[in-house]
Amino acid sequence: MIYRSLKDMESDGLVETTWEIKETGKPPKWNNITKKGLEKVDEFAEDIRKRWLAYIGTLWMATMLSLTGLVHNYSLLVVLASLAGLGTAVFHPQASTMVNVLSRDRKAVLLSVFVAFGNFGFALSPLLLVPLLQAYGLKVTVVMVIPGIIVS
Length: 152
Prior knowledge:
Layout: H1 6-11, H2 26-36, H3 39-48, H4 52-66, H5 74-102, H6 107-136, H7 145-151
Helix pairs in contact: 2-5, 3-5, 4-5, 4-7, 5-6
C-alpha cells in the first residue's frame, strides 16, 4: 500500500503524531526556504572554489535527512529539514563548478546530464524509500546515511 499522507500512515499505526494536516507541509517548505534562501552562501562557495564543500555538503545533507525518522518533536523535524537545506545550498554551486571545470568543451551537455541525474534521483527516491519505510518503519532512515557517506 502506498500512503498519500502522514495522516494515512498514522491511521495504520506506522507513525505516531499529533500534527495537524496543515503542519505536515512545513518541513519540506523550510528545507526549500533554506536551500533557495541562501544565495549568499552559494556565492561564497562559488567564489572560494573549494571542492571539499561539495563533499561536506553531501555528507551534511545525508546526515540531517537520515535523522528525521528518529525525531518525535515537530519543531526538531523542521530544524533538521532546514539544516539539510544548508548542505544542499553548499553542494550545488561547488558541484556545478566542478562539472564545468572538468567538462572542457562539452560544458552544456555535461551540466545538463548533472541536472538530469539530480532530478532523476529526486524522482526515484520515493519509489525506493516508501516500501522500505513501510516494511521497517521510520527508524530505518538512520541507515540512509550510508549512501551519503559512500557518495561523499
